[in-house]
């Protein structure tokens, strides 16, 4: 289950009917938080409610991640850092230098900056490498080496 931490707080001030606000915070394996609020009487099973909600959120996250992997043909993306290390330092420097004056290279690097991780089978990744090769930044035979890691 991808929920790594769950906590709750109970409001100090009861409502007119005696119930109090309960606020839950659940943190997943990526550091994202999920919040829930509800009114409950003093004898409410807070821990049970907390655990059940954490389990439900965890199942939802697992289902979403499973669907994302299936959509990507079960290919795990690599981190931007891992992908960058597939290129040599001179190749990385040449790509950044080219991007300062070439809008196509600039766009390719911008796309890498905004994604959370790189799906190497994405056609835009190979197209970007082909463009860098056409501009002399990388050798054409390096394209498959970079894609294959």
Compact overview of the structure:
By secondary structure, this protein is an alpha+beta fold. Helices cover 49% and strands 19% of the residues. It has two domains: 3-71; 78-148.
Task: Name the features.
elongated, 6 helices, 3-stranded antiparallel beta sheet, two-stranded antiparallel ribbon, 149 residues, single chain, alpha+beta
Task: Describe the structure in your own words.
- 49% of the residues lie in helices and 19% in strands.
- It has 149 residues and is of the alpha+beta class.
- The protein folds into two domains: 3-71; 78-148.
- A three-stranded antiparallel β-sheet has the order 1-2-3, with helices on one face. Strands 4-5 form a two-stranded antiparallel sheet.
- α3 packs across α4.
- It is elongated, with a radius of gyration of 24 Å.
- The mean pLDDT is 92.
The poorly predicted ranges are none
Q: What percent of residues adopt helix (DSSP H or I)?
A: 40-55%
Number of separate helices: 6
Number of domains: 2
Query: Whole-number average pLDDT?
Result: 92
Number of strands: 5
Describe the strand arrangement of the main beta sheet, using strand numbers: 1-2-3
Rg (C-alpha, Å): 24 Å
Sketch the major β-sheet: 3 strands, antiparallel
**Looking at the structure, what is the overall shape?**
elongated
Distance separating the two termini: 30 Å
Give the helix/strand class: alpha+beta
Strand residue content: 15-25%
Order of helices and strands: EEEHEHHHEHH
